[in-house]
Amino acid sequence: MPQMAPISWLFLFIAFSGILLVFNAMNYFSFLPKTPEISEKKISHTPLNWKW
């Protein structure tokens, strides 16, 4: 029946929006970025000799 079409459109919109949110959440939380290893060479400090 044509009178019931807006209800089914609303249901489809809610269903697709929910699927989109679940899909994005799964992709966001399943991604594990690489943690950079801190080497001692980058941390070592060299003395600064200011010559005014």
Map the helices and strands.
Layout: H1 5-30, H2 40-43
Protein name: ATP synthase complex subunit 8
Family: Belongs to the ATPase protein 8 family.
Transmembrane segments: 6-26
Description:
It holds the Pfam family ATP-synt_8. This protein is mainly alpha-helical and 52 residues long. 58% of the residues lie in helices and 0% in strands. The longest helix is centred in the middle third of the chain and has 26 residues, at 5-30.
Unreliable runs: none
Query: Mean of the pLDDT scores?
Result: 79
Count every beta strand, where a strand is a DSSP E run of 2 or more residues: 0
Tally of helical runs: 2
Tell me the Rg in angstroms.
28 Å
Based on Cα principal axes, name the global outline. rod-shaped
Fraction in beta strands = under 5%
**Structural class from helices and strands?**
mainly alpha
Question: What helical percentage do the residues reach?
Answer: 55-70%
Order of helices and strands: HH
From the N-terminal CA to the C-terminal CA, the straight-line distance is 89 Å
Summarize the structure.
By secondary structure, this protein is mainly α.
Please supply descriptive tags for the structure shown above.
52 residues, mainly alpha
